[in-house]
Design goal:
nine-stranded mixed β-sheet; TIM Barrel; alpha/beta; globular; disordered C terminus
Length: 263
């Protein structure tokens, strides 16, 4: 049994499929990339986890709206635990995808802005977030902040604020994987322009006693970004605890720091 309990939030990447294929993606997602969960095994695992005290399940990726089973899973788990989803929003430009997501009634949807320097992307995400809210879905924005784009991220944040999306609905995510691009907490605070939400590790790399990440390849970690992972040998709560027992956490910027490439 792991000595870090209780875990009450689990993030699962049900697929690595994503049409954007961002160069900075921490798990190498892209079009046609192999590795994804089956619908029933994810449902069974979530039900088992909920029976052991897990209160919230977050679906990410990859792009979860490119995973064919996402609507089925959201519907099956309604009332079992809190169901949230993070998307790049591009599939929501198709009316049938938007309608299907609304019909599944997720408890929360966050749409990511990966390129705050793109006014078109910022405007699209703001419109989609408002549309979800108008349809009764709690919604917000994940705003990626990188050091070389602090000015653009600040402009994007102010644009979101002006559109009625305040910092209570924005999560400011520092760029990870390249220490030269990772902003300091002070820099993110300036971008946000006030009190803000971010990763729990913003102030320093550490495990969260409440959070676990499971990738599309069914490996388990204390963080989505770390390379310290173990296989989940079965989609069960017991197997999750076994995988976490004694599992460490490797700082996602450590390799760059050792190479002397961090700023």
């Amino acid at each position: 049994m792991t000595d870090v309990l209780p875990i009450d939030r689990i993030s699962i990447e049900p697929t690595r499929r994503c049409s954007k294929a961002c160069s900075f993606c921490y798990n190498g997602s892209g079009p046609g990339v192999a590795g994804e969960w089956g619908a029933q095994e994810l449902i069974n695992f979530a039900v088992d986890a909920a029976a052991h005290g897990v209160a919230a399940l977050s679906l990410g990726g990859g792009e979860p709206l490119e995973w064919p089973a996402v609507i089925e899973v959201l519907r099956a788990l309604q009332g079992t635990l809190f169901r949230s989803l993070t998307t790049n929003g591009l599939p929501l430009e198709r009316p049938e995808v938007f309608a299907a997501l609304i019909s599944a009634q997720p408890d929360k949807v966050h749409i990511s802005i990966h390129a705050p320097e793109s006014p078109r992307e910022v405007a699209r995400v703001a419109q989609q977030v408002r549309a979800l809210a108008a349809a009764g879905i709690k919604s917000g924005v994940n705003l990626l902040v990188r050091r070389s784009r602090l000015v653009e991220a600040t402009v994007a944040a102010r644009t979101l604020h002006a559109s009625g999306i305040g910092n209570d609905r924005i999560v400011y995510l520092p760029m990870r994987g390249d220490a030269r691009e990772t902003p300091t907490p002070e820099e993110i605070a300036r971008v946000a322009g006030g009190r803000f939400q971010s990763m729990t590790c913003l102030g320093g790399c550490a495990k969260s006693a409440r959070f676990v990440s499971i990738a599309a390849d069914r490996t388990v970690a204390w963080c989505s970004y770390t390379v310290s992972r173990r296989p989940l040998v079965a989609p069960t709560w017991a197997a999750l605890l076994d995988a976490l027992e004694g599992l460490g956490l490797t700082f996602c910027g450590e390799q760059l720091v050792r190479l002397g490439r961090a700023s």
